[in-house]
Fold:
Amino acid sequence: MKILIIEDDHTLSQNICLALQECHFATQVVYDGLLAERYLKKNIFDCLILDINLPGKNGFVLAKEFRQYNQHTPILMLTAFGELEDKIQGFECGADDYLTKPFYMRELILRVQSLIKRSYNKPVTHDNQLLIAGDIVLDKAQKRVFRNQIEITLTPREFQILQKLMEKKGEVISKAELIQEIWGSYFNANTNTIEVYVNFLRNKIDKPFAKNSIKTKVGFGYYLEV
Structure:
């Protein structure tokens, strides 16, 4: 699990970082809003710990803009203020939880763990922009794929095949069904084109990570097992 800590207080951010690492989280620390914005557009995180008062771009604006393209990743907001209006504004901008400084690190850890568990237990529907299968994340809106936080470049056909497999995670999909879905009814379903593309996809999704997620059920089709 990878956590992005966006906090301009260097001492506090390092303390949070160490506490999370002791609980076996991978962490990345960013000290201003503009730099955080660039990180968020290039990487996938399991949770954000976001301070409100940041240089460059404050936490309210950052959260609101992030939610325009990512509705899934949970946000825990930090603030030095305890006023109700600050909390309301934070939730309206897309925060999932709130923690007022000063706080106990144990409480922060418990809240992060709860947010991540809740986000990964949400059922994946066709309305969600993110599809998640184990350590594979597919962003339908941005047409991007990540495995173990590493971005993988796919062709449009490869992306479509993976999306279909992730939407029906664990279910066997026939070659004919994949061809019909991706190429249409006029394509010759007797060709080996789908096998070639599935092989390309395995070489990108599975092989570099020493995984075997895209399975073949002989005589039936393909399925995703993670």
The chain is about 40% helix and 20% strand. Residues 105-120 form the longest helix (16 residues). The helical segments are 10-22, 33-42, 59-66, 84-92, 105-120, 156-167, 175-182, 193-205.
